[in-house]
Design brief:
Radius of gyration: 27 Å
Order of helices and strands: HEEHEE
Distance between the termini: 40 Å
Number of strands: 4
Number of helices: 2
């Protein structure tokens, strides 16, 4: 009997039948449809200098940087939101995060 490494090599090179090694068959997996979700993450600095993050799920598809900046400016100017460290005083970061997932186990 051959060792595992030799068997893998024989299978990989196609010498399966003549050497008595039958290649392993991988089961076919039917992939579910991929689902992509988007998240808009806005980071502000508060009066104490700490970051405050606001996460918004499913922002509109055609949102622009200008619209995001204007909304953040409005939040800061109107003191619409506050935190434990005081009012939000500065924009720190903006991220649009896309996450794609596929469910591999259908039940």
């Amino acid at each position: 009997m051959r060792n595992t490494k030799e068997r893998r090599k024989a299978t990989a090179t196609g010498t399966d039948r003549q050497n008595g090694v039958v290649p392993a068959r991988t089961p076919e997996i039917e992939l579910a449809e991929a689902v992509t979700t988007k998240t808009l993450r806005l980071v502000f600095r508060n009066q104490e200098g700490r970051n405050v993050t606001i996460t918004l799920n499913d922002p509109k598809e055609d949102i622009t940087q200008g619209e995001i900046h204007a909304a953040m400016d409005l939040i800061i100017a109107s003191n619409a939101l506050t935190s434990n460290g005081g009012d939000l005083v500065e924009k720190r970061d903006i991220k649009l995060i896309s996450n794609t997932s596929e469910d591999l186990l259908e039940q």
